[in-house]
Structures are given as structure tokens and as C-alpha cells.
Amino acid sequence: MELFSISLHDAEQSQRIKLYELLVREYTQLHNIPAVSRLEWKSGMDRLIGWIDKQPEFRLTQHGAALYQSTALAIAEYIVSELEPLLLSSIVRKQYRIERPEELDTIVRFCSEMLGSVPVSLPDRDAFSEVDRKRRRQKVADELELYLQEHTELHLTGFVTFRLQAYWNELRDAAEYAVDEFVMDKQYQEFISLLKYFVDLQDPKLPLVHLVHKSGHEFMVCDERLQPLEHKPVDRIVAEMVEYEMNVEDMVISTLVTISPKQIIIHTRQPELQIIRTIESIFGLRVSVCVGCGSCHSSFENRV
């Protein structure tokens, strides 16, 4: 008895093998239920057929639901793990006209991280992402199970294209967010490059500046004796550039770019802050970070 037939005309050889392995894995987890006896390839591996050989104990009305459920879970895992990156790539290319391979790969990778399809090296986020991935896979499996209960022929590409609209909507939302983040990051990197170019054009106006992190986003710009630096008018062009691109710490950045010191020592207990990475990106080797030297210890005690 033929239980189902899956058409895989567009699949790579490795993908077909992957689906086969996923089905076998699901069927081996069935207990006290007659499972699919054979998985057989037809038409040069374009079709995968699941057979139930004659088994006296098998009743479709009694055992069919569990078999359809296992089959649906395996196919859903295949869709999420194998097809999802291709679907995301298609959305990004067609909706946002992004064709450059390196940009496309970056955006799809970010989408996959958001959706929990690849690890991101953050345990809490990984745990949340895995839960979300399982939820998404289960939604796909539910649609597949309903379909398999009514049909023995499954054209996988057609099913994914036309029957999984809720799933597509989730992928489109992820792609939209990822593209927005990519564009903002690209603009930010271009802005940093512009400031760096502006700094490189100027001669240093001071030999050394200390940047003391007081708290939160508050910093104090000091001279070589760790005394607050007298406020100097910020270059108009720099001020406009920084104000346009940044919401926070704009005066610190604009002041440093205007005075363009030969050396900057940043005193902080939070060297991972974004503003510090930004300053390092703009000033490069001029910057060194201190997390607690003798000369700044008293400054932290008095000001933080």
C-alpha cells in the first residue's frame, strides 16, 4: 500500500538524502505502531514513495494519524533546515533587489540567526531562538499533516509556495527587519569612514587627551593632567555630520574629531561600550583603553 509520494524535482542530491534520513529517524521513534515498511525512490530520485507492506496488524484508520504526524514532522524539519535559507534569499532578492552575493549572504545569515536556524553564541538567545524555531516547524508540520490525511501525492515545491502563507509571512517579516538592519549598519560604516577620513586630513591639535567615563553615556574630556578640557567650539561641519548620524554621545565624538588629538586614552570600566568601539574605529591606533590605572583611579573614585 502506498502511503504517500513526495515530488522533489528541484532538490539537490544532498537535500534528497537529507529528507530520506529525516523520515527514517522519525519512523524509528514510533513505538507499538506499524511504521512505513519501505522508502523507495522513483524517476531518478525525483519522487520518494513511502510504502506500507501487508501487515495484518496495520489499520489506516487506527495507525494512520501517527504515521502522517511523523511524516509531516520530518518534512517540516526538511523545509526549515534545508529550504528556509533559499526562501529567505528569494525574498531578499525579489523584494529588496539585493543581488550582490556577499550582501545577500550577510542578510540571509542575519535572518537565520533571528529565526534560530543557526547558533549565535549567546546561550539565552539561542534557547529562545530554538523554541521559536520549533514553533515555526510545528506550524509547518500541522499544515502538512492535514494535507497528507487527504492526499497521497505531495509536490513539495508547490506545497511550500502556495500552502504555507503564514510561514512565508514570518520569513518576510524577518527579511524586512534584517534588510533594515543591514542598511543602517552600512550607512553607519560609511559615516565612520567619512569621520576617519576627516580626522586623517587634520593635523593633531593636542598631543594627548584623556576621555573619562563617568557613568552611563556620560564622558568627560580631559587634558594630559586629567583636568577637564576647556570647551572649544565644535567645527560646524563635524557638528552637522555627527548630529545627523548620532543621537547619543554626539558631543563627545564631535569634540574629539574637532580637536583631533594625537593620542586618546579612554578610562572606563566598560570597554565594550559602543561609543568606545566607535572612537576606536575613527581614531585607530591613536586610541588606548585603560580599565584602572593609577593615574585615573582617583578620578573614578571622585567622579563616578
**Number of contiguous helices:** 10
Unreliable stretches covering 5 or more consecutive residues: none
Specify Rg, calculated over alpha carbons.
Answer: 29 Å
Percent strand: 5-15%
State the end-to-end distance: 77 Å
Report the principal-axis shape.
Answer: elongated
Q: How many domains make up the 3D coordinates?
A: 2
What's the arrangement of strands in the largest beta sheet? Answer: 2-3-1-4
Q: What structural category characterises the helix and strand content?
A: alpha/beta
What series of H and E elements makes up the topology?
A: EHEEHHHEHHEEHHEHEH
Give the % helix. 55-70%
Whole-number mean pLDDT: 86
What's the main sheet like? 4 strands, mixed
What do you see in this structure?
With 304 residues, this protein is of the alpha/beta class. The chain has two domains: 2-191, no CATH class; 202-303, 2-Layer Sandwich (Nucleotidyltransferase, domain 5), CATH 3.30.420. 60% of the residues lie in helices and 13% in strands. The chain is built from ten helices and eight strands. Strand 5 and strand 6 (218-222) form a beta hairpin. It is elongated and about 90 Å long. The model has no long low-confidence stretch (mean pLDDT 86).
